[in-house]
Amino acid sequence: MYQTDPPRPPKETLPTMYDLPSEYPEDSGLSDEFHLFQPQLLRETFCPPNYPAEEVFVASDLNLYYDLRHTLWYKRPDWFAAVGVSRLYEQQNLRLSYVIWQEGVAAFVVVELLSPGTEKEDLGQTLREINQPPTKWEVYERILRVPYYIVFDRYTDKLQVFQLVADSYSALDLSTPRVWMPGLELGLGLWRGSYQGIERLWLRWYDASGNWLFTPLERESQRANRLAAQLRELGVNPDEL
Fold this sequence. Notes:
Elements: H1 10-13, H2 34-45, E1 56-59, E2 64-65, E3 74-75, E4 79-83, E5 98-99, H3 100-103, E6 109-113, H4 119-122, H5 136-143, E7 148-153, E8 158-165, E9 168-171, E10 178-181, E11 186-195, E12 198-206, H6 216-233
Parallel strand pairs: 2-5, 6-7
Antiparallel strand pairs: 1-4, 2-3, 4-6, 7-8, 8-9, 10-11, 11-12
């Protein structure tokens, strides 16, 4: 039997990007692009003014070991920051992981970016199985006692903030998608703009005046624009230099 119609292209018949998972539990490969770019933006704009740069450590997708009785148990936050701790391990080495019983300082803020496969655990909706490690929620809330736990769903653009009050997390009622953290003298909120050439809502840090903190590239652009303006005031066309 002869085929009379041309075959449909693979783009129409095979699974799409939205049908296929970006990661498997047994696969330690890299996550999707958003899980690469968003932590990078958080790192580039995290500059707490009350801590010197050498006492600020930020990490993404780094093993965080939290129980000295079970030394192989760990969680891997999408992004976290610890302050009042050396930027370098023992002030000399880049970290291979973050080991709480050696560091002595827990994370001040943890950010998890929701994925369909991790949503329930990220939001504390799973129960701990017998003889299994505690869930992320239990570790952040009860063991490490992280003051701020941030959860962002990029599919719905929903931001959820949980603050440690007494012994448990309390969800903050956000009238605007922002939260101020006095201990850092910084705030975290949703910013709409272009980062890495991609226009969307991003999590980003802001200062006490409500201004979004610049990335290094944006700072360089600002300096270049100011210099160009000064040259024009002097009657010099910077485009001709």
